[in-house]
């Protein structure tokens, strides 16, 4: 079971390294729920997490998370002691602290430029993280840490990237300008216009119509031939009769 879990973690890490340029040391943002779960399940985060992710890690939290743990009192006192050992990342809520989940979401805005991992047991926060591309999600299940598989949002982002649909706007404009300079834009427009022209009548349909006409025209000609043959036979018969009469006389 441990080997399969490690194999899945290695595969998921390769996805983020290759497509979103995650590199060591891996920066992991932890909230109070994750620290509390680690304490309850006797998990040594600092010692176990680098081996699971396959490289050095930098464990981080925010002032808002520490404030939230402090406000919850004795119930989460142990989780607060664990979180205080981590590096505190600067957030934009110095004057007006917000909840830990809201603070962590603000840290991964605009494409997660600092390549943060989010470690949480908060299901609502996890669902919001999955709606953002390129944000790995860590949680604890059955006394072990688990790196969640890439979200559908991350997979869709990578698919668009591979099909060259996510070309920056300034690159699109430069491509159009280059085409205009080289005259390629006009050529492409002319080709498209030629394709839109309607074609002539189908020659096969014309041939079929002609065959029908010839067949219809053959019927009266055949009747005329029959009439001519009848006239010839009558003329011959009359001639034979006149010759016989003359001989009798």
From TrEMBL:
SUPFAM superfamilies per the UniProt record, alphabetical: PIN domain-like
GO BP terms: rRNA processing
Keyword set includes Nucleus: yes
Region of interest: Disordered: 168-249
Keywords for the protein's UniProt record, in alphabetical order: Nucleus, Ribosome biogenesis, rRNA processing
Sequence ranges assigned to domain UTP23 sensor motif region in this UniProt record: 192-211
Protein localization: Nucleus, Nucleolus
Main subcellular location: nucleus
Chain intervals with Basic and acidic residues compositional bias: 178-191
Listed Basic residues bias regions: 224-234
This protein's GO CC annotations: small-subunit processome
Keyword Signal annotated: no
Family, similarity comment: Belongs to the UTP23/FCF1 family. UTP23 subfamily.
Function: Involved in rRNA-processing and ribosome biogenesis.
Protein name per UniProt: rRNA-processing protein UTP23 homolog
Gene: Utp23
């Amino acid at each position: 079971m441990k080997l399969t879990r490690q194999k899945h973690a290695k595969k998921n890490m390769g996805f983020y390294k290759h497509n979103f340029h995650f590199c060591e040391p891996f920066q992991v943002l932890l909230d109070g729920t994750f620290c509390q779960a680690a304490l309850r399940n006797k998990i040594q985060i600092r010692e176990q997490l680098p081996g699971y992710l396959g490289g050095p890690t930098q464990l981080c939290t925010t002032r808002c998370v520490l404030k939230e743990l402090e406000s919850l009192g004795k119930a989460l006192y142990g989780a607060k002691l664990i979180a205080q050992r981590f590096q505190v990342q600067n957030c934009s809520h110095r004057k007006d602290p917000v909840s830990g989940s809201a603070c962590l979401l603000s840290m991964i805005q605009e494409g997660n430029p600092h390549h943060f991992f989010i470690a949480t047991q908060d299901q609502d926060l996890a669902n919001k993280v999955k709606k953002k591309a390129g944000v790995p999600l860590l949680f604890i299940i059955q006394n072990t840490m688990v790196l969640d598989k890439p979200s559908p949002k991350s997979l869709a982002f990578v698919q668009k990237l591979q099909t060259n649909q996510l070309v920056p706007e300034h690159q699109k404009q430069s491509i159009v300008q280059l085409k205009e300079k080289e005259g390629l834009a006009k050529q492409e427009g002319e080709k498209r216009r030629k394709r839109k022209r309607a074609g002539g009548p189908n020659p096969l349909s014309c041939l079929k119509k002609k065959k029908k006409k010839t067949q219809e025209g053959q019927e009266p000609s055949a009747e005329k031939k029959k009439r001519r043959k009848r006239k010839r036979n009558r003329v011959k018969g009359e001639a034979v009769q006149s010759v016989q009469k003359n001989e009798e006389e």
